[in-house]
Fold each of these.
Amino acid sequence: MLDRLNQTLEYIESRLDRDIDPAELARRAATSEYHLRRMFSALAGMPLSEYVRRRRLTVAGAEVLAGDASLLEIAVRYGYGSGEAFARAFRAMHGVGPGEARCTGTELVSQARLTFRLTVEGSSSMRYRVVDRTAFTVVGPKARVPLVHSGPNRAIVDFVRGIDPRLVERLAKLSDQEPQGIVAVCDDLDPSRAEGTELDYYHGVVTAEPAPEGTATLSVPAGTWAVFTVSGPAPQAIQELWRDAFTEWFPSNPYRSRPGPEILRVTMAPGGAEADAELWLPVEREQGRAAVFAD
């Protein structure tokens, strides 16, 4: 898998001055476009689209300083429809406009080329199971919130604090399927998974019972799920569980992520310092790949 990702990166480098079709990137990585975006974001720490943008502006920056082509020629070469759009993107990355950069020779920002490598850090292991589920329904209060990659998501925290405790208690009694109890559900995430893009957040339960007044319903179709469990300090252990699923488990197992909600159930220990967590991720089997060692 890592070899194919690196081949995909080489392809991106060869087409920085041309259109890059995400479907072609997925074909070269021998996976789905959805899974490629998820894997790249987890491994690189930035969305695939952001990496391509930053690499283009890095190469464009060198051409701006070289002075061999006009700023409009450089803008068009790297996919910008106008000099103004290029200038805005250039300033957002480099902190200075292209005209000023050319005149003053100021310092610019460089996005290094990425290479994925396997690093062995110990004999850690993950606890998981694969579950085939029939269709089910999530019921609970819903909010549209921004995506936050690290640290607390204040929009979610404020939303959950504003829910009537009596409603939460009533919902808990309706839970009649796995995962049991109150769950946090994230759905309809932007494919780029860029910081600040929005998603639907549900604070509810999986149930066959009718939705109480004031709640929303999310219908989840039948499918396969990878279920990961962890116990440890909160929230560190929970954040690392999601990270490890994409940086360790997916590259080592014949599954890829598929579109669908992500479901997290957390049980806090007395005192709130420790927690047990169960993370449900929608997956599908990758044909023709037994494990990373077969690549």
Note: The chain has a mean pLDDT of 89.
Amino acid sequence: MKDQRNAAETVVEAWFAEHRFPGYLDPIRRKARDFEEAHPGYRVRIRGYDFHELPRTLATAVERGRTPHLVEYYYASSRLARDQLGADGRPLFTSLERAIAGREEVLGEKVVTDDLVPAVREYYTFDGDLASMPITATTTVLYSNMDLLQEAGVSEAPRTWEDLARACERISRSRGGRGHPATWANHGWLFQQAVASQGGLLSDRENGRRGGHPLTVDLASEEMLAFVGWWKRMDDAGHYLYTGMQEDWEGTFRAFASQRVAFVMHTSKLADAAVHAGRAGGFDVGVSILPRNGDAAYAGNLPAGQSLWLSGDCEKAVRDGALAFTQFLASTPNAVEWHRESTFVPITRDAFRNLDGKGWFREDGRRRVASDQLEASDLSPAALGAVIGDLPEIQRLLTSAMESVLVRGEPAEDALRHATDRAQELVDEYNSWCLGSPPRSPRRLDVV
């Protein structure tokens, strides 16, 4: 009887991005079991793959004729997802919005796409079409050692670059000039945030969001130069701690946890970890918006996170099961639970209202900073960030350029113009590959 029941099941193959947090996918696996209980004819088979390797693993599977029905891509890999081809040479993934086709429910699961946090929904929207279903979202925030600020006579966390520089000056004086008050990783995400917050673009075609693949890229824009120039001044003044490693998220967080620095810019995902580090170290942690250029109108800060992409090669029963599962994961009870367990941003506004109504944010206001920051976005293509081919390698060009500015003293404009020239070559190469005759799937599948 068991074999007959399994033979009658509709199986949804879902590949999720795995991260190096203990038990990261355990809640997702529990939710898959809950979904199966609610939908006895379905089985959701969850497989986890390191988020760095998932696009490469998928490409290999496609070559071997094995295609999952749902695949979770890291936000920076959205261009890869859009350009991944199936065995038949057509785009592997179909539009989530077109698959839902205006329905308010799928297999009895309420469709919640219209209630997604707007900045998150619009990140995965291209030419007005929602391509995939975001499940996790973060942004970048500022963590402050409030005890060190109080000792230096700084009354509140800085909100602009200029505020941060002044606060660092006061903290440095209170410490007798010892150490460096602030740190953050030399990583492409922070360059993107800085340009986005000022309303700047990294590429044409509205940051690659309308009218097809972007054709040009600019890493030496006015907005980029403003950020890099401020960063260099912070370093020259002794305010910025460079750990000596590019993309050193771990090292910068350790510097904050050990009180080597008073400030760190980091992912909102680590809000709980930062608060716990403060308790262990005997200091109070403040969580506030990411400092921005006070001389520029604010546009917004882009989200990071992951989104589920739906294979276009699904039978109707499988497709509806996959769609229903995505909406089930983002339903208010599950989105609330995912936020409480993981500290990711509540993915829908109703989930936020539910948490707010139960006093979750009144209990600790630090939990809502990331949500408030994303809600402040003007949803322009600038604020949403760029979707460019070979984005991870372009980000590495930025970090290498910044290291050259910080360590070797290369003028910022020269370093960024050289980076732009190389980035343009990468974009041209990517487009010639993916838009050639015949088009091909991306060959470089790096994620970050």
Note: The two ends are 47 Å apart (CA to CA).
